[in-house]
Amino acid sequence: MQSIAPAQTHAALDTRRILRGVYVARLSLAAAIYLAAILVWLTTDEASTLLSSLGLVVAMAFTGASVVYTEVYERPIGKTFVYIQALFDLALVTVAVQVTGGAGSGFAALYILVTAEAALLLPARGVLLIAALGIAIYVAAAVMTSGGERDRSFWMRIGVFALVAAGCGYVSAKLREEGAGREALAAELAQFRLEKADLEELRSRARKLEAVAELSASLAHEIRNPLAAIRSAVEQLGESPRSTVDERSLSVLVQRESDRLSRLLSDFIDFARLDAARLAPLDAVEVTGDAIALARNHPDKPPGVQIHAVLPRSPVLVDGDTDLLHRALFNLLLNAIQASPPAGAIHVEAAELSPRQTPIDGAPFLTGGLAIRISDEGAGIPEDIRRRMFDPFVSTKRGGTGLGLAVVQRAVTAHKGLVLVDSTAHGSRFTVLLPRSSHRVANVAGNA
User: Fold this and answer.
1) What three-state secondary structure class fits 77?
2) Which of its termini does the chain have fewer beta carbons within 10 Å around, N or C?
3) Residue numbers of the domain that contains 141
4) d(Cα 376, Cα 179) in Å, to the nearest integer?
C-alpha cells in the first residue's frame, strides 16, 4: 500500500476564503462612497454623485459575477481571475479617491489594502506590479487634477505606499514558499483514490490487529501472575544465607529477565487496550505540534537531525482521544528519528482536505479530513518487511518488540482514519488521514 501525501494550503492561503472577504470589503467600500455622496448631495457636484452611483452599480455587478464564478459554479481560480479582481479594486479605490478630494483624500490609504489583497493572492512579482500601478494612478490623478496637492505630505504618502509594497511582496514570497509544497500535495492527493481491494486490505489489517490484540491481552494476563510468583521465589532463594555466589548471580539474572518480560507483557496489555474510549473534538494540529516538540528532545535523535514542520496556523478539529493520537504520531516520529542518518532531515507536513481530496469517498470523510505526513531520509523499509510491518512483533530493530507500527495502526483506526505508507531506498513517508469533526472550533475548550 502506497501513501499519498497530505494536501491543501491552510486557511491563511485559502484563495476562496480570501476572495469572499474581498467581495464583502469591495461592496462595503462602494456603498460607503455612495452613502457619503447622498449625505452631502447639496454640496457635491453632479459629476461626483453620478460617479459614486456608477461605482456602486458596477461594483455590485462585477462582484455578483465573481461570486457566481467562484461560489456557484465553483470554477478553478486562476492567476488571470485574481489579477482582474485586483485591477478592478484599484479602479474602485481610484474612484473613491477622486470623489472624496483627489490626492488629499483620506481614501488614498485604501491603495495599501489593495496591495495587501494582492500579497495574499498573487506571487511577489504580481504584488509589486499591482502596487506600482496603484502608485502610478495616484500620481497621475494628482498631476492631472487642477490644484492637486503635491507637497511633502503627498510624496511621503508615495514613500509609504512603496514601503508597504516592498513589505507585502516579501510576505507574499514567504507565504507562497510555505504553501507551494502543500499545493503540490493537494494536486497529488486529488488524483488518488483507494480501490475497493485496497480498502478491503486496510479493513483486513485492522481486523487482524483486533484479533491479535485480544489474544495478546489474554496471554499476557495468564502469564503475568505465574511470572510474578517465579520472580518472587527466585528472589527469596537468592537471598537465602545458604545460597552460593553462583546461585545468587543466577537469581539476579532471573529477576532481571523476569522484569524485562513483565515490561513486555505490559506493552502487550497496553496494545490490547488501545481504544478511543472518549471521543471528543480535539485540535489535531496542536497534538501534532506537541508530538514534534517531544521528538525534538528525544535522546535517540542522532546528532544533527532536524525536524522541519509545516502545519496549519488555524485549528483543525477531529473527533478522538488526545493521548491516543499523540502516542500514534510520536511513534511515527520516533521511527523516523531512529531511521534517520546523522544530519538527516525529517519533514512533518499537515493540511486540511476537502471531501473531494480524500482518497476514500463517503463516510467518515463526508466533512473532509486532515492529512499528516511524516517523512525521513533513511534507507527505507526492506521489501520483505513492508507487507508485514503493521503486524505485531515484526521489527527490524535490535531489542524491539515490533509493536510500534501496530500501535499506530490501532490508534488511527480507533479515530476512523487510515495509515498509508510509501518507502524507497531514499526514505520512508507515513501519511495519517483523519476525518474532520463537524463540531466548531469553539467546542474544543468545552471538551478538552
Assistant:
1) coil
2) C
3) 11-190
4) 20
Q: What is the pTM of this model?
A: 0.54
The residue among 429 and 228 whose pLDDT is bigger is 429
- Is residue 391 helix, strand or coil? coil
- Residue showing cell 463540531: 439
d(CA 410, CA 268): 13
| Cβ contacts of 268 within 8 Å, gap of 6 or more | 216, 217, 219, 220, 403
Q: Are residues 289 and 436 in the same domain?
A: yes
> Are 296 and 328 in a shared domain?
yes
Q: Looking at residue 45, what is its pLDDT?
A: 66
Calpha distance 298→383 (Å, rounded): 28
Number of domains in the chain: 3
Same structural domain for residues 61 and 173?
yes
CA distances from 38 to 49, 197, 250 (A): 8, 67, 99
pLDDT digits (tens, 9 = 90+) for 261-292: 777 776 666 666 656 456 789 999 999 999 99
Cell readout for 243 is 545460597
Give the residue among 185, 175, 192 at the shortest CA–CA distance from 375.
Answer: 185
CB 378 within 8 Å of CB 428:
yes
Residue 290: predicted pLDDT: 94
Angle at 178 between CA 173 and CA 183, to 5 degrees: 105
Q: Are residues 440 and 298 in the same domain?
A: yes
Tens-place pLDDT, residues 218-228: 666 567 777 77
- Answer yes or no: do 339 and 252 share one domain: no
Amino acid at 311: L
Band of the pLDDT at 111, cuts 50, 70, 90?
confident
**Residue 6 covered by a domain:** no
Query: Which of the listed residues 190, 225, 241 is the one where a domain comes to its end?
Result: 190
Handedness of CA 297, 300, 305, 310 (dihedral sign): negative
Beta carbons of 249 and 233 less than 8 angstroms apart: no
CA atoms of 416 and 274, how far apart (whole Å): 13
DSSP 71: I
